[in-house]
Design a protein that fits this description.
Protein name (chains A, B): Ethanolamine-phosphate phospho-lyase
Shape of chain A: globular
CATH class of the largest domain in chain A: Alpha Beta
GO molecular function (chains A, B): ethanolamine-phosphate phospho-lyase activity; pyridoxal phosphate binding; transaminase activity
Number of strands of chain A: 15
Oligomer: homodimer
Subcellular location (chains A, B): Mitochondrion
CATH superfamily of the largest domain in chain A: Type I PLP-dependent aspartate aminotransferase-like (Major domain)
Order of helices and strands of chain A: HEEEHHEHEHHEHEHEEEHHHEEHEEEH
Strand content of chain A: 15-25%
Radius of gyration of chain A: 22 Å
Enzyme class (chains A, B): lyase
Subunit structure (chains A, B): Homotetramer.
CATH architecture of the largest domain in chain A: 3-Layer(aba) Sandwich
Largest sheet of chain A: 7 strands, mixed
Helix content of chain A: 25-40%
Distance between the termini of chain A: 20 Å
């Protein structure tokens, strides 16, 4: 009944998980979610609940600030400035100006506005299978979305570069220098744009592609792309909405995996930033910020940077530090990856394991040479895991990549549990679903 | 120091109130804000704190739900469905499908996407001086913003209609039928678009123009516009981001001021909806929602419709009802308007008083015939009121309209206080600023 009323009263384009038999979750704590019957689910997918669902320090920070004051940034407030300073301390020095907004979509749209204004150029280069948000400007640069449309008409100012996918892409593990090869593709797009009299404002990419299939670009790729894009007068936008805030384990930001010598011109943040509270951020250089200001157009965001959002953002940073969640991502993510690698040894269906920290993908294929996507099999695993009270999802252009991005308090025991169940499903030895 | 660090570390395009001497607010309650020295300010401007700053019922609802669960709408949850039902109960029956998003900007952008998809058309008609949000698609339809740019290049698919302003516009109080005259202007734009082979997807307008200068369109105007737009195959989008939720006193939605026979195709909501919590909503008809769904593109909004936002939205609706804030807006708004009308009788500078409920504008002019905008005088009043610990702002294309949009718990005593101070400023009898 709830499901039916929902589909009558709210967005019919919005899908629920497990649409054949959706779950009603009523509470959650850490890496666990509980349905209305008290059944506990292990959550392997909610990267938004970054420091764990309903973390008491985050809840307390939000509640206390709500009680005191929640207003817009037209007044001075310590939280705004403190939070900007704390975020900047995690970033290379030249990324020194923060814009606070409400969602990853608002952040990426503002990043485009900054790039357009700074460069005076219009064109944008995006990666194949990319998803950067739901507002209209971002649908235009999200092949993951516009490929869904029958009558998709790609904007003439958007250019789609090859996804730097070493498993299924044009240049693979066996290529002598895939970083250069993929970057050259971007350069070719720039040259083609120039031939048509177009100019490139920005290259935008997730530091690791998420919806695109948990793709890890080869190290050095971003540096080479940035060289090409800068030479064309454009900016490099690193979208950290899915992958930032310590998830990759070795670094706080996923773009840092490319090497110390790489610094984007603009970084966008979102999902995990407020552990579920609607907030996000764009960070850029003084030069870009000044150019945007000098356009003469004021920027105002009603909710962005309000004292409650900033208090929550600060609490999230505190918890990451205090509970060493980046370290946990490194340790448990490594452990999970090793367990999955063993599955790859054991089951031919598991074609590729790739990940950094607690951002891990397992790509399923019917044939390890042809790489035929095992889409139905991935869906089957997801549904069987759900019956075992484990929440996992499949994504990527073929929806055949099992996608791990759990809350950062995920433990080795959790990793053991989910991989054991996957093993049983693949072996065909899984017992009947637990009864409730 | 705080002000300086802020301007170094955060968005230099973001302006603070009273930039010569900004205020640091540390707490707020009801219609009052308090600075770091405990000085109390009467808040005449923060329409976002709709039911009063830090309302305990809203804070409690948010805190309790944060403690339990805050996750995305891919899981079923009662709050989402209950909130959709409660909002729909305030609207005409045909507005039956809700999309929950995070800001007025996200709401208006989604409204455009719905209109584009439903109609298959591209062009948008907007009002002069309109502001609909900060994402790139909305800057395009916001003359209030794009007029700020030196090198503004208006999109060929955006058409700017006359603002239906009966005081300063093309057709005024003395016109026999301004509703028809202003609607005919929209129709002319439609015809001109057709001549160029363009087709109109939507007409968008705030139900009462806010940044545009607190403009109250003549009753019947929307009906006539809707006829023209529907004939052209387009939709009518009513932007209630600033003016909805009972502010106009006689009705819950400002578009209802036009008459019982007017129903927009899409309504967007924002600012007051969550009393400061980042959330917003788009409501439309089943037909429009189905067309959007049938495009084949899924819609997902990470934070939109999460259980915390919905709990807060429900609490705001409860408080409006329980404390009869719509009734209060009617009573106190009427009282404030009468007091301001007396100021108009007394001071030639006060050219026009216009308002509905607690949405009131006082337009200042140096000459009542030429309507020369008294911009500097408006700024002077604002700064002098600030010294008296009253927060008011001036807006409109000439920044000469004093703009009242206080929290809805504003009282007659508050109205007395602000108007008395304005009277003293205009009379020149104001005492020296209160010392702290």
């Amino acid at each position: 009944l709830l499901s039916q009323t929902r589909s009558e009263r709210t967005c019919p384009s919005c899908k629920v998980f497990f649409s054949h038999d959706p779950i009603k979750i009523v509470r959650a704590k850490g890496q666990y979610m509980y349905d209305e019957n008290g059944v506990r689910y292990l959550d392997c997918i909610n990267n938004v609940a970054h420091v764990g669902h309903s973390h008491p320090m985050v809840v307390k920070a939000g509640a206390e600030q709500m009680e005191l004051l929640n207003t817009n940034s037209r007044f001075l407030h310590d939280n705004l400035v403190q939070y900007a300073q704390r975020l900047q301390a995690t970033l290379p020095e030249k990324l020194s100006v923060c814009y606070f907004v409400n969602s990853g979509s608002e952040a990426n749209d503002l990043a485009l506005r900054l790039a357009w204004e700074y460069t005076g150029h219009k064109d944008v280069i995006t990666l194949d299978n990319a998803y950067h948000g739901h507002v209209s400007s971002l649908i235009n640069i999200s092949p993951y979305k516009f490929h869904q449309l029958a009558n998709a008409e790609q904007s003439k100012s958007v250019h789609v570069a090859l996804s730097p996918d070493l498993y299924r892409g044009n240049y693979r593990q066996d290529h002598p220098d895939p970083a250069t090869a993929y970057a050259d593709d971007v350069n070719n797009l720039i040259q083609k744009a120039h031939e048509k009299g177009h100019k490139v404002a920005a290259f935008i990419a997730e530091s690791l592609q998420s919806c695109g299939g948990q793709v890890i670009p080869p190290a050095g790729y971003f540096q080479k792309v940035a060289q090409h894009v800068h030479r064309a007068g454009g900016l490099f936008i690193a979208d950290e909405v899915q992958v930032g805030f310590g998830r990759v384990g070795t670094h706080f930001w996923a773009f840092q995996l490319q090497g110390e010598d790489f610094v984007p011109d603009i970084v966008t943040m979102g999902k995990p930033i407020g552990n579920g509270h609607p907030m996000s951020c764009v960070v850029t250089t003084r030069e870009v910020a000044e150019a945007f200001k000098n356009s003469g157009m004021e920027y105002f965001n009603t909710f962005g940077g309000n004292p409650v959002s900033c208090a929550i953002g600060l609490a999230v940073l505190d918890v990451i530090e205090k509970e060493d969640l980046q370290g946990n991502a490194l340790r448990v993510g490594g452990y999970l990856t090793r367990l999955l690698e063993q599955q790859k040894e054991k089951h031919p269906l598991v074609g590729d394991i790739r990940g950094r920290g607690l951002f891990v993908g397992a790509e399923l294929v019917r044939d390890r040479v042809k790489l035929t996507p095992a889409t139905a099999e991935a869906q089957d695993i997801i549904y069987k895991l759900k019956e075992q009270h484990i929440l996992l999802s499949a994504d990527g252009p073929h929806r055949n990549v099992l996608k791990f991005k759990p809350p950062m308090c995920f433990s080795e025991e959790d990793a053991d549990m989910v991989v054991e169940k996957i093993d049983q499903i693949l072996t065909g030895t899984l017992n009947a679903p637990l009864s409730l």
